[in-house]
Here is the input.
Amino acid sequence: MIEYQSLIDAARHAREGAYAPYSRFAVGAALRTRSGRVFCGCNVENLSFGLTICAERAAVFAAVAAGEREFEALAVIADSKAPVTPCGACRQVLAEFAPTLPVCSANLEGAIFQSSIAELLPRAKEGILGT
Ligand code: THU
Here is the structure.
């Protein structure tokens, strides 16, 4: 059983940095690596909407830039009715490094939904580039 509380707390804190003037939907993510470090991200929107980066990808890119590629667990949090799960693009980016990554989705009220990248994006890399 993965201990998610500290990861959820880190994601909640990261969410406070979100820049979301267009959607007004702030998201925070926290990614624990095998070495025990935690990398956080928040969504950063842009007037050219397609340039927006999600919290989850911000966290992955921060980890990879720090030399960490082995991921152990992800927590993501937003002020949503149902706990928020990563979008399709983020699922694919997470699958690049951790196709079976456990994911804990949370909302500000304390509801959680546990899943994994394997469940959220099955067969993510199958067949691509001859794999
Ligand atoms: N968003 C995330 O950062 N992560 C998610 O899991 C869902 C969506 C952001 C993108 C955009 O800034 C806003 O939430 C609304 O879609």
Q: What stands out?
A: Residues 20, 23, 25, 27, 43, 45, 52, 54-56, 76, 84, 86-87 surround tetrahydrodeoxyuridine (CB under 6 Å). The first strand starts at residue 27 and ends at 33. The mean pLDDT is 97. Strands lie at 27-33, 38-42, 71-78, 102-107, 112-116.
